[in-house]
Amino acid sequence: MQSAIENNLYSNKTTLDELLYSILPVTHDVHSLTSSTQRQYVKTLSANYSTIILSPPSTSSSNIQVLAGITVANITNYTLCSNGIVYYVDQFIAAPLNVINTISTLSELNQLENIIKSQNLSNIFTATPNQTIFAPVDAAWSALNGTNVPFGTMIHDLKYHVANGTYYQQDLLNKNLTLATTFSSATVQTEAYADGRIVIIGGAYAADSMDGVADDTTLTVANIVRSDILTSSGTVIHLIDKILPADPTNVVSLVRGGDITSNTTKSRNVNALAAQTSSSATTRMFSHGLFLIVFTAIMTCYTISY
């Protein structure tokens, strides 16, 4: 553990504020974390990197997980102390990066990174903090030959993937939403299902002016394949497996099968994609050593097997 701390803290020039990102002001006991069925979005002592995510055990992981930026760390053990708990994790908890560096670091977003940098479009994602980005993975761009989209259309499409406000996975699971995007306030709709899937429904204007219900002929339905990637600006990134065209006339191809119906406020029928792939994804980690998440100041400690 000592070598892990030395290798990561000093080589990465970690600041005090970044260290405070691993400290929570209140105690979260093991029972409450393991018995929960929902992710917990908790504040840290860091002034600049305020939110960290505690994810309960699931079908994909038997461990409690800590989500911090691009890092997904497993809690492997813990130590009870006189006034807090120290949790041991298998990855170094680094503070979130800014939006563009986060996109650049994720191996699933190479094509999006190339588009942003080659066409100088970073301002679409960075001009305003505390937004929600639905970022198409590389396979989505390849499927529609998306990198050859005309420049003006590309700007519209990228803006259509950015929603005003921060919406975490739990917000999208709790109820179906209509979200205004940064493309002329055009909307996308979200739907969540009992099996944990979340889909984003778009295709220009997700509701027409006649009946307020989206026209199925222009819809694209994308699955969220990885959620809750935090950034330093407060913006959250969700990875999706389809491009959502901002202009209905530019929809290249919609390959959809199966039936998804229902909405909490109105019913609509759309053809949806197959069940989303596992939310687990290759993540660039900063180390393979142990690091401590300190929940309160530590005094006298004793260890309990986990």
Automatic annotation (TrEMBL):
Q: What is the lineage of its organism?
A: Eukaryota, Fungi, Fungi incertae sedis, Mucoromycota, Mucoromycotina
What organism does the record attribute this protein to? Mucor circinelloides f. lusitanicus
State the coiled-coil residue ranges.
Answer: none
Which positions fall inside the FAS1 domain? 96-244
Give the range the annotation lists for the signal sequence.
none
Mention any Pfam family matching this sequence.
Answer: Fasciclin
InterPro entries found in the cross-reference section: Adhesion/Biosynth-related (IPR050904), FAS1_dom_sf (IPR036378), FAS1_domain (IPR000782)
Gene3D superfamilies this protein is in? Answer: FAS1 domain
Q: Mind naming one GO cellular-component term on file for this protein?
A: extracellular space
Official protein name in the record: FAS1 domain-containing protein
Q: Which PANTHER family match?
A: FI19380P1, PERIOSTIN-RELATED
